Every structure is written in C-alpha cells, then in structure tokens.
Amino acid sequence: MTAEPGPGVTEATTGASSAPIGRASVASTERPGTHDRRRPTTQTSPTAQTDRTAQTSVAVRVRGDRAPVGLVGKATTVPIRDPRGAVVPTPPGTSGRNSLRLPAFWLLVTLVAVGAWRVIAIASTAFAHFPVATATAAVLFVLYAVPFVIVARSVDFFEREPPLLVAAALAWGAVVATMTALSGNSAARSILAKLATPAFAVTWGPAIIAPTLEEILKTLGVVVVVLVARRQVNSVADGAVYGAFVGLGFQVVEDFVDACNAVAIAGRGDRVAPVIVTFLLRGFLGGLWSHTLFSALAGAGVAYYVVHRRNRSLRRRLVVALGAIAGAWLFHFVWNSPWFVTGFGFGGFGVLAGLIVKGAPALILVALFIGTASGHEADVYLGTLVALSDPRIITTREVAALRTGRRRIAARRYAYARCGRPGSVAVRQLQRAQAELALDLSRGGRDAYPLRLRVLVQRRQLAAMAHPEGCLPPGRRRDWGAIAVVAALALVIAIALTAAVQLVATR
Amino acid sequence: MGDGRRRLLRNLWASLAVLATVAVIGIGLPAINALLPAARPVSASEAYVVAAGVSLRPPVGARVDVSRTAPGPHEGAVLLLLGSVRYAVVITPYRGTLRGAAARLRAKIELIRGAHVVGGETSVATAQGVAGRAGTYESPNRLGRYAVFVADGLAVEVTAAGPMPDFRAALPAVLDSTRSLSFRSAS
Question: For residue A31, is pLDDT > 50?
Fold first, then answer.
C-alpha cells in the first residue's frame, strides 16, 4: 500500500513541529531503525511491529488534505488542515496575567463577589432554620453536578479549558445569573400580572419570563469569559463547554434554593422529604434537558461568532449566534410551557411522557449539534497527529477511537477486557498523551519533544501487554454500552417519577 | 491610539454593556415593577374564585394585589388589601389532618422574621360548615390572625395582618369574608 506524499504531509514535515519531532526520533526511547517520518508513504501499525500474530497491519494514508478514518461506522476522513477554520489555537506564550488588566475581569470579580454574598445569605438563613434539610440539599445537588462535569469535560478532551476559566463560568451561572434572575423574574412576573392578568402570569409567565431573562443572563457569562480570555475560546465546542458550565452552576444553585423553599413551604420542620422530592423532580425529570443544555447551545453560538471572525461574514456570524441563543430560548420556553402538564390524562406515566415529549427533542438536537462541533474540533487536532504519518504516535484505528468520548471509553473497555485494569489505564494515558501532543502541535509544537516521548512510553507499555493499540474492539458496530446507559437512565427516571409522586402525595 | 489601548477600550465598553444588561434585569425591572400599581378593585358582592374551586366574598373596600395573586386549577393564592391590612388566602393540595395543617401554618408564620403565634387556637367553621382552626400572631408593630381549613383534598390557609389600629378595625370584615369561604363540594 503506497501513497504519494500530499500537501498536508509536506506541511507537517516542514512546519513548526518538525524540529522537536526530529529530536524525538533520535531519542533513546526509540527502537533501532528509527522511523523516518519524512517517508510518508506506508507505515505499518505498532500492532504489526510488536505483535505480529495478533492483528493485521493498519496504515495511515494521507491523500491531499485528508486522511481516511473509515474503520468504524460511516467512512470518514480527517482533515490534516483546518479548512473550516473551526479551531483557532491559543497563541504560544499566552498568559492569564494579561486578563488582570482587563475591565471585564474586574467586572467578573465584582459581580461574582456580590452574587456569592447573596447566595451565602440565602443558604445561611435556610441552614439556620433547617440545618439537616439544607445540608442534604447542598450535598445532593453538588453530587448531582458530577456527571454533568464529566460529560462536559469529555467534550473538552483535546483542548482542556483552563480550570480558572471553567470555575469563572460556573461561578457566573451559580451566583451572578441566579441572583439577578431571582430579582428579575419576580419583578417581570409581577409586571406581566399587572399588564395582563394574574392567571396569564401564572400560566405563561414561567414560559415567557424565565427563558428570556435567564438565557440572556447565562449567555452573558460566556460573553464575559470571551472578554476575559478571548484566546482560550478556540472553537465552537469550547463555547459549548463554557456555556454548559454556566448553565450547570445556574441549575445547581436554582435547584438548591428551590429545595430549601420546598422545605419552608412544607411547614413540617427540618425534614428532608421535600428536598428529595425536589431532587427527583428537578434533578432527574427536568435535569437532563435543563439549563446546562440550553446554555451549552447559546455558548456554542457565542463561540461561533468569536472563532469565525476572520473567515465568516459578520452577518453570518450574527445569524448563527442569535440563532443559537434563540434555540436555547425556544427549548427553555417549550420546557416551561403549560403544554402536556396533565400527562394526557394517563396519570404519572402520562406526565412522564409529557416531560419526554417536551425535553427529549432539545436533548437530541443540542447533543447532535455539540457532537458535530466537538467532532470538527477533534478532526482538527487529530489531523495534526495524522499529518505526522507515524503509527507509533497514532494509528488509523486510534484516530477513529479518539474522535468521541464514547469511542474513547469503548477503547478503554476493550483494553480492560484484554488486559484488565492496567490495560485500561494505559489506553487512557495514551489517549491523554496523544491529545496533549495534538494540542501542542496545533500551537506550534514547543513541547512536542517530551510529549512525543510520553506517547512512545505509553505505546511501549501497551505493547508489553500485547495490546499495542488503543483501538475499538473489532467488528464493533453499535454502542451497546450507550444504549444500556440510556435504557437504565429511562428506568431511573420512571422510578424517580413514581417515588416523587408518592412523596408529593404523602406530603 | 495604540492597538493595546484600543483593545482595552473595546473591552471596557463591552464590560459596561454586560453590566448595564445585568443592572436592567436585576435593578431596572424591580424599579419598573414598583412604579406600576398592583392593586385592583374587587367587588364585595360577588364571590371571588381564588383557586381550585375555592371562592370567598372579599371584604367591602378591599382591593386585590394582582402581583401577589396566583389563580390555578389545583392550587393558588390571592392577596387582598384593606388599607394597610394584608389579607391572604393560600390554597394547596393537602391530604393530612386539620391539626397537621394548622401546625404547618404556624410553622410558616414562625418563619416570618420577628413573628410568633400568641395564645391558643380556637375552632372555627365556614358558612358552608367546613371546620377549621384559628389563632393569633404578632410581629413587631403588627398584629395578625390566621385560620386554616381542610376539605376536598385542599388546605386553605388564611392570614390577615396589619398595624394594630387598622387591623382591629378591619378584623370583623376579614372574619366575615373568611366565613364566606366556599369549596366546590364541601365535605
């Protein structure tokens, strides 16, 4: 199998990454007969190099600007350039200290401080009256945030956002957006009742007011992140990640405050039953398609506006950004609307069906949108590795396995099945090392030498376990694991609903 | 003007725009709300439907505060204003006992800053014959009366409070209005 060296390979060979990679090729970690990456024709995979009996050889063939990645699912290719301009890498030497000079940074600090003071005041009042219930609510909703963080970070696999910026996004949603919305929503609902009727405000107020004010406030969180550290917003997926964290902060604090209110309204003292009911209703039944999802969509729109400022017209960027924010508003509107609240007359399961009808389309559409954006970002980073044409760095099958979070997990599970926990850990570390090398190469490759060594070390560890590739299991067509998770989730939701209804009935 | 300075100015203007938006929502909307009158006249000669099929006759001269009124098919509330006296009726789905409902209302009252229940509770009833419990509470410079009724799977919590002289003057009208509480199908 041969291929002519394409322009992508030439670019990689002569590009910024060539020097450190060249140094790596003479490092002591290399085997004798060091691979010359200037020979961009056919490379056999490490499977063939180290485990000749186990697998067939796999080659990365670079054609023009793309390399094929067609072993799993629909045949596709990875661009070894970024034709869409989907990723704007952070320039080397970018320092967080520059943000200290910016007015936006001090605005963020001030508003977070004011908001935090108000949240603490609310929480301490609740704690003074209902210590057990308030502590339970705090613990439950903090734990509830963990899976969301894991999912958001999986979108963020290649180019991890700086923890301080993620914390800033979370804090904006948790204390600035919630506390401002608390005043704004109440006033707007009252204005609606005065201008229309109390009945209209009760029925449609949550659908009209909450999406309008809350989506604006949460989107401002992403805008502030952009103002504070524009160079860290490198792709549409980054915007989705920041938006998701703003939304998550909002969701957790809003649910916590609701749980405390439920305890007070129940009027039965310091009991946790109202907290559990709120947790089940708002956490499980409403949590999947709530603020985290809406804000991720809006954040993606903001990021599109910022990232594509050099290769898309202002009009197109505005249309996409406003469209994404409008989408977030619409999904929020539908979710808060009074439609299907009676459950079509079929009791608890009817209510569950109504919730799914209202929430699932948002979940599916936003997941697809963010999945596509994340895939484009992954393609760009993977392209930097593919352009090296070095199967010791990445093989075709690993490219396919690295592209999405689900596939990365599937590759680790496959390693676990073959080599136990050490295999799974080694694949995870290989994936992490490959991602960091890809990121570094996209930023000019200043640290490519040690990062490449890390990949090679991880590769050697895997080879020692007779599992030299972090690839997907052969013949994998359907992600049964994901299907099982979804089915289990649906079951949990149904059980949660039943429990919630029973608890509400006995209140 | 250098590039850096221009960027800084752009950042400043954008930050001010963000601050202005937050201020409009967090401060502007409450200010606009405060400027709009909330009280609407309500007829004392007709039954006023609060929520969930529960109605009452408002006291003569009462006005309904539409900003604190929330009608609904299963639960709801109304706030009536008699001068400085606030007369509130809150309806919630409830499956417990009358004593439990009374204890719940007392607990809610005690959550109001400085408020506490004084004296014992007495039995009361609506004109329709629905039994309830009533009592008195006070907070700094304010006196209040509460009553609670349970029927039809609902708890109806009634509270009226105001400055002492105004409250004493309004109390007979409030008690009449409370007695007029009507359930869709009283038990």
Answer: no
* A217 to B8: CB separation less than 8 angstroms, yes or no: no
Q: Give strand pairing partners of A313.
A: none
Residue ranges per domain, chain B? Answer: 1-36, 39-179
Terminal-residue alpha carbon distance, chain B: 81
Could you identify the residue written with the tokens 């909002």?
Answer: A250
Instruction: Measure the CA–CA gap between A331 and A328, rounded to whole angstroms.
Output: 5
The ipTM value here is 0.93
DSSP code of residue B87: E
Nearest CA in chain A to B64: A198
CB under 8 Å to A434, separation ≥6 — which residues?
Answer: A385, A393, A394, A398, A402, A455
Extract the tokens encoding B14: 């954008």
To the question of pTM greater than 0.80 for the whole model, the response is yes
Residue of A nearest to B100 (CA): A268
* C-beta atoms of B26 and A179 within 8 A: yes
Per residue in A253-311, pLDDT tens?
999 999 999 999 888 889 998 898 888 888 877 887 889 999 999 999 999 999 998 88
For the cut 90, the answer to whether the pLDDT of residue A154 exceeds it is no
Contact A193 B69 (CB under 8 A): yes
Q: What are phi and psi of A162, to 5 degrees?
A: -60, 135
Closest-CA distance of chain A to residue B156, Å:
14
Instruction: State pLDDT tens for residues A467-478.
Output: 999 999 887 666
- What pLDDT is recorded for position A16? 31
pLDDT at residue number B1: 58
- Give the dihedral sign, CA A473/A477/A480/A482: positive
Do residues A253 and A178 lie in contact, with contact meaning Cβ atoms separated by under 8 Å? yes
Closest residue in B to A338 (Cα–Cα):
B72
- Contact criterion met (CB < 8 Å) for B22 and A180: yes
CA-CA-CA-CA dihedral for A125, A262, A139, A249, to nearest 10: -90
- Please list every residue in chain B whose beta carbon sits closer than 8 Å to the beta carbon of residue A265: 108
Nearest to A259 by CA among A111, A112, A138: A138
Give the count of beta carbons closer than 10 Å to the beta carbon of residue A375: 16
CA-based nearest distance A355→chain B, Å: 19
pLDDT tens readout for residues B54-95: 999 999 999 999 999 999 998 999 999 999 999 999 999 998
Q: Tell me the chain A residues in contact with residue B106 when contact means C-beta distances shorter than 8 Å.
A: 267
Question: Testing the interface with A: which of B16, B18, B63, B111 to mutate, by most A Cβ within 10 A?
Answer: B18
- Flag if A216 and B21 touch (Cβ within 8 Å): yes
Q: Is the domain B39-179 a CATH 3.30.230 member?
A: no
